[in-house]
Amino acid sequence: MNGTNSKEIELVGFGLNARSAGLNLCHENAEEFAMTMPSVDFVQVHPEHFLQDLGGNYVHAFEKLKENYPLTFHGFGLSLGSIAPLPENYLKLVKRLLAENEGSFFSEHFSWSSVSHHHFHDLIPFPFTQEVLDYFCERVEQVQEYLGSEILLENISSYMRFSISEMDEIAFMNEVFKRTGAKMLLDLNNLWANAQNFEEDALERMMAIKPEYVQSYHLAGCTAWGDNNYIDYHGEAVREEVWQLYQKAMEVFGAKPTLIEWENNIPPISRTVEEVHKAKAILTKA
Predict the structure, then answer these.
(1) What is the pLDDT of residues 170-198, one digit of tens each?
(2) DSSP 8-state code for residue 20
(3) 254 to each of 22, 213, 240, 283, how far by Cα in Å?
(4) Are 233 and 264 in contact (CB under 8 A)?
């Protein structure tokens, strides 16, 4: 892999060659990223940072990196599960970023994160009922119609469940994909952490996802909390159990563009790139 030549990667479908492995751009690594131009296939960018910052290291790094890497855009503030109106300024920004960066795609989450114009710094789960399903599909369709393209949706880590749920998480997600045409960004760390937190089998949960919906992977490190609970903190290397699940995902879903997220306790970028290259090696053998 060569950062300066990664524009040569064939862009297909939702943007990237199936065997691409990338890295997330953070405020903390932006300056080093732009200076070193590490050997990764693509870069993930958060649109929220362009709403917050008019300049600074992040924006400056983005301007340099977009000339040398394919980009993907990953949101966490759209609050698809909220009853609040969809944020017009945010959607305008995403539409512009997609138009300016050919081959890119936008992803969000199965969550909500805002009430009365107050945004929480978290992704909050919702009950899996028929009413919520209908509403969530409507919101996804509104976003896709506005952007003029399908989006990817990521499964989140959660630490509670609702007694009023009428279906499980995987059944809910499969139905959203079926009804809206959106595709899945499968976060294997979140899936594994949820399985531990709720005493489930991670592989069994993964196998319930319909293969035709999976379009991309996220890998990250989660932090142990208590005896057998895990928080999706993105503050350490990917756990060996998650790497093993990733290997199984290759057998079930095949090679898909894969991103390493390391956004807290961030080490030198060379260490994170080691994780990217580990994913690349697995993709290459898939």
Answers:
(1) 999 999 999 999 999 999 999 999 999 99
(2) -
(3) 17, 12, 20, 9
(4) yes
Residue 278: left if φ>0, alpha if ψ -120 to 50, beta else—which one? alpha
Q: How confident is the model at residue 11 (pLDDT cuts 50, 70, 90)?
A: very low
DSSP, collapsed to helix, strand or coil, labels residue 280 as: helix
Q: What is the pLDDT of residue 57?
A: 86
Q: Are 155 and 184 in contact (CB under 8 A)?
A: yes
Do strands 214-220 and 21-24 pair parallel, antiparallel, or not at all (unpaired)?
A: unpaired
Which residue(s) pair with 108 in the sheet?
153
Residues 28, 268 contacting (CB under 8 angstroms): no
The upper half-sphere exposure of residue 238, i.e. CA atoms within 13 Å in the direction of its Cβ, equals 30
Alpha-helical segments (H) within the chain: 30-36, 48-52, 57-65, 88-100, 130-147, 169-180, 188-197, 202-207, 240-253, 269-285
The answer to whether 51 and 87 have CB atoms below 8 angstroms apart is no
Q: Is pLDDT above 80 for 8?
A: no
Q: pTM value?
A: 0.92
First CA to last CA distance, the chain: 17
d(CA 274, CA 54): 32
What is the C-alpha separation between 246 and 4, in angstroms, rounded?
Answer: 28
- Spatial separation of the C-alpha atoms in residues 267 and 247, rounded to whole Å: 25
